[in-house]
Sequence to fold (173 residues):
Amino acid sequence: MEYVTELKRLNPDPNARIHVDTNTTILTRDYIDQLVEAGMSDIGPDLKGYYPETFMQITAIENKAMAERYLNTAWDAVQYLIERYKDSVFTGVGIPYNKELIPPQEIELIGERLYEIDPEIQVCVLDYRPEFKRLDLVKPHYYEMVKIHKILTIKGLENVICQTEYGHIGPEI
Fold:
């Protein structure tokens, strides 16, 4: 909060963009309101799954009740950002993807739920790589990311970008 406030103070230009990138686990509605009031103009909330078990695997949280709470908080934050701030705060959802962590079928469910929230929401799928602290993983192949892009766009999402080692796919192929 203090950091956003200080950035806004240092750059009072009304056109300045202040972006917060967050895993959303503690991003309550009140906290979102405070960040907006402090000067946040853009936010990149991450959604690490549809199911608590996936969230636990990606985050290494072992307590299922805690994982469920954090996952629900993340989804509620995205819902609230769109309901309350769609016209004033740019929201771009991040989804980490690696088939060892989250299967394509779960990406479909995430896509369906995001579509229900807002078909126009920007979604950026990150190719979760070994250098992201999971040395046992194999980086998703470009064509695998093309498949994930198609899964999400078929669900009706209009602004899907997939990060790959060769650059971005989307928003349209």
Notes: The first strand starts at residue 19 and ends at 22. Residues 2-169 form a domain with the TIM Barrel fold (CATH 3.20.20.70). The chain is about 45% helix and 20% strand.
